[in-house]
Amino acid sequence: MRRLAPQTEEAVRARIGYFRDLGIFDFYRRDCASGETSLADEPELELAAEEAAPESPTMPRAAGPVPSLSILEERGAPVAPKDKTAALEAIREELRDCQRCPLAKLGRHTIVFGDGDANARLMFVGEGPGADEDAQGLPFVGRAGQLLNNMIAAMGLKREEVYIANIVKCRPPQNRVPEPEEAHTCSPFLFRQIDVIRPEVIVALGSTAATYLLGAKSPLAGLRGRVHSFHGSKLIVTYHPAYLLRDPNQKKAAWADLQIAMRELGLKKSS
Ligand code: SF4
Questions:
Q1: pLDDT digits over 149-203, tens only?
Q2: Residues enclosing ligand 1, CB less than 6 A?
Q3: How far does the centroid of ligand 1 lie from the alpha carbon of residue 214, in Å?
Q4: Domain ranges of the chain
Q5: Assigned CATH class of 81-265
Q6: Distance from Cα 3 to the centre of ligand 1, integer Å
Q7: If you measure from the C-alpha of residue 104 to the centroid of ligand 1, how many angstroms do you get, rounded to a whole number?
Q8: Is the pTM of this model over 0.85?
Q9: How far, in Å, CA of 20 to CA of 30, rounded?
């Protein structure tokens, strides 16, 4: 049997471990025509079904195509809470000391992965970490984070009950808006987190989050006040808490947006 290069073997092992963390144990192997391959060359490796290779001890033949978590979601298959936590940890592990985009070398101290309940019904997505978040490794811990905590409390929830993450996981210098290259490189990790958590409702905080979740740039005013969808979750757009700190007059409008989220979650309005 032809052996893979050590680096490729390690990458395959890590990918298989990731799917096992999700509770997926059956894999197909597809033979390569010739030469060495890497996961980058073979992005469909874990999902290749049609051209299944003979059974092997480490990769037994499955009865059908190996489902991705998104497919499981469509089928409504339950995912055990511990599997969700493990799946999130597998994504965090894959990031490690991520150098995939320029933000890695522009003064970041920590990668702010995301924080909260892996089984959250409600998820908030912001733009990117600021100085406090970069220092603590947690999203929304500065003044804007305090306001977000108040918004969550006003909805009748605790911060620990929701999940919070950003479009990019490293702090842009001077808190500038992430460049498209940075956002497009980092956001797939966020999308995988969303696919694991499968929240019923996502609240996009601000224009950057709305742009990359909806896949198109539009004025925030035109996106607010209605329910969009993202990967099977309901998506509601509102102002970023940092913007609300600068213009408190918009808090009333933001509260109206949060009430849409509450309605979708079946939460009662506080009197
Ligand atoms: S922003 Fe995301 S893609 Fe860029 S270096 Fe940080 S973790 Fe990696």
A1: 999 999 999 999 999 999 999 999 999 999 999 999 999 999 999 999 999 999 9
A2: 95, 98, 100-101, 103-104, 111, 168-170, 182, 185-186
A3: 20
A4: 6-66, 81-265
A5: alpha beta
A6: 32
A7: 6
A8: no
A9: 19
